[in-house]
């Protein structure tokens, strides 16, 4: 009941947005739309009731970033002081991130230049970095690097035995997690994900989520936010599976362009944002080599 009450108050983090509970009670996408428009001053600070707040994203959707930033700004201006962990910073860059803050405090562009990984549209992340710097909040480099993820995929010994145990990666993946993640991979590759690559990809996805979960645990004393793709925020297959936290301690919010049926129940709340116009990724899809 404590989580239900806190979640009700935290609806204001969806300030000014229509929200959809993550339960399959209604529309063609598997979500019931309540049409609620929550005021900007209806208690967003109640985010502080959760030890872990996981806020998703569609990486290239500016409107999703804008709404998420507005939610964070509202809560932080109300007095919340969490650490902010970001998928966009690889864990090896924490020292660079901290050094950039010492060199030029408050300079988000300098921090991105010194610690940001290639491949991200940093114009979408600069505002939240500036928010963290303005309030002197901890910024956490949370992600497994692409090189290490590739190493995991290829079966390399990226983690020593002690770290694998600490991360929860010393045992085979739970069957339900592997099955659900497999379905997601096939869906995101238009049904043509190469079977030969599947075991390695499952291990790499699990490693990334486990590493991000460890980063959150290390900075949870005063609350921590994770900013990451919606897949990492999912409670069934993402970071929450690796946190080892009580459900009442965790709030998950997805910022989705559309709510797929398999995502029903995967988040505490869903914010639907207008989709970005893109070429159909499956328009020329062909079966990949087996």
TrEMBL record:
- What keywords does the record list, in alphabetical order? Lipoprotein, Signal
Q: Name one Pfam family in it.
A: Cofac_haem_bdg
Q: Where does the signal peptide begin and end?
A: 1-22
Coiled coil region boundaries: none
* Alphabetized Gene3D superfamilies for the sequence: 3.40.50.11550
Q: Where is the Haem-binding uptake Tiki superfamily ChaN domain?
A: 45-243
**Entry protein name:** ChaN family lipoprotein
Lineage summary: Bacteria, Pseudomonadati, Pseudomonadota, Betaproteobacteria, Burkholderiales
